[in-house]
Model the fold of this input.
Amino acid sequence: MTTRRKILVILGSTREGRYGDKPAHWILGMLRADGRFDAELVDLRDWPLPMFDQPRSPVKVTDGKYGNDVADRWGQTIAAADGYVIITAEYNHGYTAVLKNALDWIFREWNRKPVTFVGYGNAGGSRAIEQLREVAVELEMAPIRRAVHLPLDVYRATMTTQAPADPALFAPAEPAAKLMLDELAWWANALAVARAM
Ligand SMILES: Cc1cc2nc3c(=O)[nH]c(=O)nc-3n(C[C@H](O)[C@H](O)[C@H](O)COP(=O)(O)O)c2cc1C
Done:
């Protein structure tokens, strides 16, 4: 039996009345039911990081001291995980500014970990996800191929329900999610072993 890998589900939008809670709780439920992961929700609302303002690039930080207490704790939280599922909205064909800020604040803690995405919007968040993959490479992460682009029907069916939405409403997205979790499990395991060598 392989070790359970720690996966953080990062909820990447923070605006009042956001939709992001619903896919976040759905995929968290799938991760927890899977048996291969210990999954936790990381809600960017709980991380009041200022807009990045440091004189030094986080690439140069080797001691986890980023010049801001929240950022230091953010680094410790990210460091403790083996991989990430980012829940991403699409704002003007990109991803949210609050998410970019959270990604930029730290560096080493992201390195050599797999990342994947659950995107939503008119095109399943596909433009936001593609952009995030580019950013992930620069953070020395391993963005995996499989992601979930929430089908428009699912997005519409769950839009007006209270969070957490009934997981049954996400059933059309489950096959894609299962493939994504298989790939995430493989990469999280392989890279955890490699990091320990
Ligand atoms: C500033 C802004 C820009 C948006 N731009 C897009 C877009 O480019 N593509 C898209 O599919 N949806 C777009 N939308 C609609 C969002 O997909 C929708 O509001 C979604 O619920 C946002 O995620 P959130 O509720 O978690 O913040 C935009 C919404 C906002 C607030």
